[in-house]
Structure formats: C-alpha cells, structure tokens
Amino acid sequence: MKIAILGGTGPQGRGLALRFAMAGVAVVIGSRDGARAAAIASELNAQLSTLNPEKQAEISGADNLQAVRDAEKMVLLAVPYSAHDATLKNLKTQLAEKILIDIVVPLKDGDPKAVDMPVEGSATEAAQAILGEHIPVVGALHNVSAATLNKLEQSINCDILVCGNQLDAKNQVIALIEQLGVKAYNVGPAVNARCVEAITPMLIRLNISKKVPFSHAGIKIWAPEH
What is this structure's pTM? Predict the structure, then answer.
C-alpha cells in the first residue's frame, strides 16, 4: 500500500511519514512545491536507513496533485488550517475514489490554546462539505503531538480517536493507523469531530503549563479495573 500525506513537509507530516514507513507502509509526501517535497523525502529516507532498513518502506515526494494520484487509497491532509479548504477545493476531482483522512485542527489564529471552528462545526465536517458525500472523509490523528511523532525511538503515547460518516472508511483508516502500534477507536460520526478536534488546544494548554510536570501529553482510553 502507498499513502499520500499532503502537507508532509511540516513537522506532523514528517513524523507520520517516518512512522508509517517504519511500519512498512510506502508514503508519498505532497507539497505545493514538488521539488521541496522530493528533497525532504530524501532526508527522511536517509534518517530511516539507520533504524530498521529491513522492514521500512520508501518515502517519496511530489507536488500535491501527483501525491494524490500516487496514493493507492488513503490521503492524509496535514496542511495548516489556513490552507485546509483551498487545498481540498483544488484537489476535489483527484480525490474521487480515495479516502481522505483529515488530521487538521482549526486552532485560533495567534492562540493555539483555543479552537476557531468553521461554520460547519469542525475541519472534518468542512472537508466533507467541500468534497461531497461520495468521497469519504475520516477525522483522525488530531491529538498526537508532532514532537511525539518525530521521537522515533519512543512509541506513540496515546490512543487515536476516529470519526466519520462512513463505517467502512473508518474501519479501513483504523486498520491503517493501528499499523503504527497504537489503538484506534471509532468514536462516531463526523459531527463528533467537534469534540475530538477541540481536545487538541486543551492538550497544548497542559503541555505548555509550568504547573504540569510533563509535555507532549495525549489521550488514553482506559478500561475499568473491576
């Protein structure tokens, strides 16, 4: 399988590309600048070559349009929120027959400790409105810090909350994400992305607080002990 990560040159996109490649999933990172994406892909492959060369898959780079074309089925959207809607509108035709995994959080401009939700209610719902119901949109990976993703010597320290309106698409995304060695949970329809995306600024607030003795926290789902 090959997946695409649009916005793959940013910290979160790079971390996800590295993690998926380590798990044996081929990745093409997309950017508005295809040459830059290719250069960063080369850097990431060099970084991976010292870790687990037997299992790892290749990371390649291309412009966003080519990255979507190269993806077998799954396309992750990891662009800044300011580019969220425009990117999807530009690629809507090419995303037909794909599953979009939207990991974007609409953080308030100038204050990452708060959200600034679009009129649709969440970035996930906005993506679904732009693409139409025939293209499945699944919200996931909103609450994982980029710093955690890029610490490859450590496991991801949280569970993944997955939401969307199409069950089969969610199940496929959950299976993909669990290749990273994490547990992913179906937490309901796309409307629930309003809650899931809103967790991120809370975590950011905790992680930068001097009163909290840790950073890069995540969400875990715990079973009762009784």
Answer: 0.95
